[in-house]
Amino acid sequence: MELDEEYTWRGRRVRLARRGSGPPVVFCHGTPWSSALWAPFADALSARHTVHLWDMPGYGRSSKDADHDVSLAAQGELLADLLAHWGLAGGDGDRPAPHVVAHDIGGAVALRAHLLHSASYASLALVNVVALAPWGSDFYRLVRDHAEVFAAVPPPMHDGLLRAYISGAAHRRLGDDATEMLAGPWLDPVGQAAFYRQIAQADQAHTDAVEPLYPTLDLPVLVVWGIEDAWIPVDRAHRLAATIPGARLELIEDAGHLVHLDAPVALAGVLHRWLSP
Fold first, then answer.
1. DSSP code of residue 35
2. Quick one: which of 35, 133, 149, 183 could link to 53 by a disulfide (CB 3.0–4.6 Å)?
């Protein structure tokens, strides 16, 4: 699904796509991914829904300017404004509220947009999301302390480090095509610097600010988790579902953090059932 639209937000160039007709669904990707991870699912749902994809600034095909804030705080504000740009989530009831499907830090972005910036959703599906403390790995902390050093490593070293990092998110061995799709945006000099920049700006404070508000969520929420997630263990799924009133929990076997690639049929089935009237 080609990102054939562009939205300018505070100097950032955000690549977008809209397809199909019917109730709106907005997909939010995580790190270090892009909307390409959601594209096959959006394409499948476009027969009955208007699907919306976007690459967060600093990711995928959106701008990766060195001086731009790409934190969860900035991305949450952007999502709220982007929904208005799409003509969605009007507080006056005249515009449709979208179903939102989010993965990884996209979950934190969607939660912040709703809880702090008044973005309205018809429902929220949270797939292996960053939402609960503690989060962030030793690698994150090392990059945060030495981001400029990592950004300057020779390209072959960066290539190997990046591919090893990405492979750890999957429970099954990633195919060559999937690896290239995930790694591609980060391989040129601009992408290399952006890869370490977005890690360096990751801050648990941005989820700490909204975690106490999860019990106030008053909309249908689905929590989906690949049981074999090595990045965010499945106990977080149980904790998150227990924190949100009325949340439904769906666990997917033989799938890790990249449940989209580990178990695409199972994930598609869960989302289809959730979004079907």
1. G
2. 35
